Every structure is written in structure tokens, then in C-alpha cells.
Amino acid sequence: MKENFKQERVDLAAAFRWAARLNMHEAVANHFSLAVSEDGSQFLLNPLGAHFSQICASDLLVIDSNNADTMSQSNAPDPTAWAIHGALHRNNPHARCILHVHSKYATILSCLEDKTMKPIDQNTMRFYEKVSIDYDFDGMGLGDEAERLSTLLGDNSVLLMGNHGVLTAADSVAQAFDDLYYFERSCETLIEAYRTGKKLHLASHEVARKTAQQWEKYDASDLHFQALKAILDKDEPDYKN
User: Fold this and answer.
1) Cβ(52)–Cβ(112) below 8 Å
2) How do residues 217-230 score in pLDDT, each as one tens digit?
3) 140-to-2, 34, 86 alpha-carbon distances in Å
4) What region does 154 belong to: left with phi over 0, alpha with psi -120 to 50, or beta?
5) Which of 14-18, 135-139, 186-190 has the lowest mean pLDDT?
6) 3-state secondary structure the chain
7) End-to-end Cα separation, the chain, in angstroms
8) How remote is the C-alpha of 146 from its chain's centroid?
9) Could you tell me which CATH number the domain at 6-240 has?
């Protein structure tokens, strides 16, 4: 494996493997990226047609969003990945790592008229007032649609892509994956609560906001990701190759 960005490659490969283990992947679609240049114009990205469960560190492509010839090369990435991640990294410098999936429960929430994450438990309150929501889906993420999506994230770490799926964006792979994990769990809790047909017991604005602030101080994302990589080191050590 090329020595360039070795640790970044290993971390992103671990995220792919765990997304597959948690059944957040979809066929050979969906895409993760990690900026490796200061301005975000260069980033690691999964290759076209690779299943998340098989991705290794050396498989990841180094993409230059300033290279107009990228999509005409023999190892061109998925066109939606090229468009969406290129635009997101360009327009959101704080989004160093971007994880995009069509996970089951987040996608269900994205398809509802009311797409808001209700503060019904400790996990859902983590995302109180911290999710950007797209209500104007306009086709697959190509061209103008990718540019439009890239302007919606703002200062939040989660973008619920209406009628599409979800993406998380953070300073590191560990932070982005932790958000992805907890957001999907929160969506599952909310959707299952809706399925009961009973009235939801919402926390007050004050309690929900306080809990969200407590989550910011209680940041175990690095510990979580280290534990996940330790499991892979034992069960699937080839992810580092």
C-alpha cells in the first residue's frame, strides 16, 4: 500500500467494514470520503463497484475535485459520489469526513412529511436542533442537485436527505461514524415509537436542549471507534491492507 495517508486510509476502511456489519450499506452504492488536503479539494473515496464489506485501506482512491478529467479516467469513481462529495468538501471546510448511506431507519424518516427527530429519549435528544433537513429532493445527486445539497449542511453534523437517506459530516472518521451510528439508532427508536400508534411523550425544549449540550461534553467517539477497530483487528485484519 502506498504510504500516503496510511492512517486516514485505515480509519476510513474500518468505517466501511462496520457500516456493512451494521447493515447500513446498500449493494455497492453509497460512499464515504475523507479530506486529505487542507482545503478539502483532495479526498479519499471508495472505488466504483466495491462492496463495503470488502474494502481495504489500499483500495481507496485519492480524488482531486479540481481535476476535470477525473470521470474520464479508468478508475473513475461513482458519478454521484464524485458530485456530492466534491461539492460538500468544497462548500463545507469543516466537513473533513463525510459518510453517506441509505440506512433503513434514517431513510424511512427522510420519507415522512415530518422529518424532524423528536426528543423522545436520550439518544434522540443528542440531535436536538442539530440536524439539517432537505425537503426538496430533485433526483440523484448529480450536477445542480449535488451543489444544492452541499449548501444545506450549515454548522450541523447531520444532513437528512429528503426521500434519499442521510449523511454525517465531522472533523474525523471517528466522530462522523459515531454520529452515523447514534443517528440510525435514534431513527429506529423514533420509527418504532410511531409504529405503536400511541402518542409520543416529548421532552420539553429546555430538557432536550440541555441533553444535547451534555452530549457535546460527553464525547466518546474516539473510544467507540478504537473499540470497533480492535474488533476488526481480530476478526478482519485485512481491512488494513
Assistant:
1) no
2) 999 999 999 999 99
3) 33, 21, 15
4) left
5) 135-139
6) CCCCCHHHHHHHHHHHHHHHHCCCCCCCCCEEEEECCCCCCEEEECCCCCCHHHCCHHHCEEEECCCCCHHHCCCCCCHHHHHHHHHHHHHCCCCCEEEEECCHHHHHHHCCCCCCCCCCCHHHHCCCCCEEEECCCCCCCCCHHHHHHHCCCCCCCEEEECCCEEEEEECCHHHHHHHHHHHHHHHHHHHHHHHCCCCCCCCCHHHHHHHHHHHHHCCCHHHHHHHHHHHHHHHCHHHHC
7) 7
8) 15
9) 3.40.225.10
Cα 5 to Cα 12, 89, 146, 197, distances in angstroms: 11, 17, 26, 49
Domain boundaries, the chain: 6-240
Alpha carbons 28 and 99: distance in angstroms, whole number:
14
In Å, how far from its chain's centre is CA 197?
30
User: What single-letter amino acid sits at 218?
Assistant: Y
Cβ atoms of residues 108 and 183 within 8 Å: no
Instruction: Read off the C-alpha cell for 185.
Output: 439508532
pLDDT (average), residues 43-58: 97
What is the average per-residue pLDDT within 97-103? Answer: 98
- Specify whether the CB–CB gap between 109 and 117 falls below 8 A: yes
| pLDDT range class, residue 141, cuts 50, 70, 90 | low
- Grid cell of 135 as nine digits: 425537503
Closest CA to 121 of 196, 189, 181: 189
Read off φ and ψ for residue 32, nearest 5 degrees.
Answer: -120, 145
